[in-house]
């Protein structure tokens, strides 16, 4: 995406929940050096994958499928349960119940399922393409992108308007981090840089830059000054970086106490 300078706009921007970017199978939690050296993490992923492929499973079933001892399977299941990847439950019985307690099985949690391949990125891209083709091309996608921002707008407004002008970029960074953007603020010549180290919609934004443009417009409107997007993850950069010039005392006085919407 090319560099772009955006000024504050006169209305709030209308945001469904974040489109999630779940790509490939993820390792849950932090792997220690010992785990990496012994292959513990790889085996644990095999246990989780077996449950995904075969459904809720007993320790004995997992041990047989994976060629592991039941003690080893239990150890891995304990770790996966602690990471909220699997949970223990009673096996559902269809028909007449037999005597004795139902077998305990281990099933994936919602968190566990999200650690595997999902089609959220493709779904998002397909939906945006459909909007563009059926509802008015690039302008329709831009309208959707603005609408998407609005659902979070109020939270960000409260965070920014509750602090002094010189603290607004830092407050916005903290609010963005709470939504998963891993954002930081740092000083720059004649201003500040807002850095977002993660973008939940990066894959969709690669094809539809309107998502980035709407976000940039919102930052300008929210902070009451023009801003310049220097880099984006969607464009292949390591960090989304937005330059925010230092707001003059006169400018801050003229906008203080006024809702930018």
Give a quick summary of the entry.
The protein is of the alpha+beta class. 48% of the residues lie in helices and 14% in strands.
Describe this structure in words.
The structure is a single chain. With 261 residues, this protein is an alpha+beta fold. It folds into 2 domains: 4-22 and 119-255, H-NOX domain (Alpha-Beta Complex); 33-114, Winged helix-like DNA-binding domain superfamily/Winged helix DNA-binding domain (Arc Repressor Mutant, subunit A). Helix content is 48%, strand content 14%. It contains 11 helices and 7 strands. The protein has a 5-stranded antiparallel β-sheet with strand order 1-6-7-5-4. The chain has a two-stranded antiparallel sheet with strand order 2-3. α2 (40-54) crosses α4. The longest helix is centred in the middle third of the chain and has 25 residues, at 137-161. The radius of gyration is 24 Å and the shape is elongated. Mean pLDDT is 79; it is low at 1-5, 7-38 and 249-261.
Uncertain spans? 1-5, 7-38, 249-261
- Provide the number of structural domains: 2
Q: Residue share in helices?
A: 40-55%
- The portion of residues forming beta strands comes to 5-15%
The count of DSSP E runs of length 2 or more, i.e. the number of strands, is: 7
CATH topology of the largest domain: H-NOX domain
- The largest beta-sheet arranges its strands as 1-6-7-5-4
Largest sheet features:
5 strands, antiparallel
Distance from N terminus to C terminus (CA atoms, Å) equals 27 Å
Pfam families: HTH_5
Protein name: Transcriptional regulator
InterPro entries: ArsR-like_HTH (IPR011991), Carb_Metab_HTH_regulators (IPR050313), HTH_ArsR_DNA-bd_dom (IPR001845), WH-like_DNA-bd_sf (IPR036388), WH_DNA-bd_sf (IPR036390)
Organism: Streptomyces pilosus
């Amino acid at each position: 995406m090319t560099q772009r300078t955006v000024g504050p706009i006169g209305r709030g921007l209308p945001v469904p929940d974040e489109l999630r970017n779940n790509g490939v199978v993820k390792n849950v939690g932090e792997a220690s050096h010992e785990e990496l050296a012994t292959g513990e993490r790889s085996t644990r992923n095999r246990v989780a994958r077996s449950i995904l492929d075969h459904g809720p499973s007993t320790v004995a079933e997992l041990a047989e499928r994976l060629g592991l001892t039941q003690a080893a399977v239990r150890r891995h299941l304990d770790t996966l349960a602690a990471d909220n990847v699997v949970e223990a439950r009673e096996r559902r019985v269809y028909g007449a119940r037999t005597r004795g307690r139902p077998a305990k099985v281990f099933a994936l949690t919602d968190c566990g399922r999200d650690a595997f391949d999902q089609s959220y990125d493709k779904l998002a891209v397909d939906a945006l393409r459909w909007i563009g083709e059926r509802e008015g091309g690039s302008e329709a996608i831009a309208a959707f992108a603005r609408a998407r921002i609005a659902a979070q707008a109020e939270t960000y407004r409260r965070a920014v308007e509750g602090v002094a002008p010189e603290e607004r970029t830092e407050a916005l960074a903290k609010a963005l981090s709470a939504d998963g953007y891993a954002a930081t603020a740092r000083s720059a010549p004649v201003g500040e840089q807002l850095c977002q180290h993660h973008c939940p919609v990066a894959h969709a934004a690669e094809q539809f830059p309107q998502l980035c443009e709407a976000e940039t417009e919102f930052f300008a409107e929210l902070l009451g000054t023009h801003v310049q997007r220097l880099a984006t993850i969607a464009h292949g950069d390591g960090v989304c970086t937005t330059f925010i010039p230092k707001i003059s005392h006169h400018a801050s006085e003229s906008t203080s106490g006024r809702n930018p919407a």
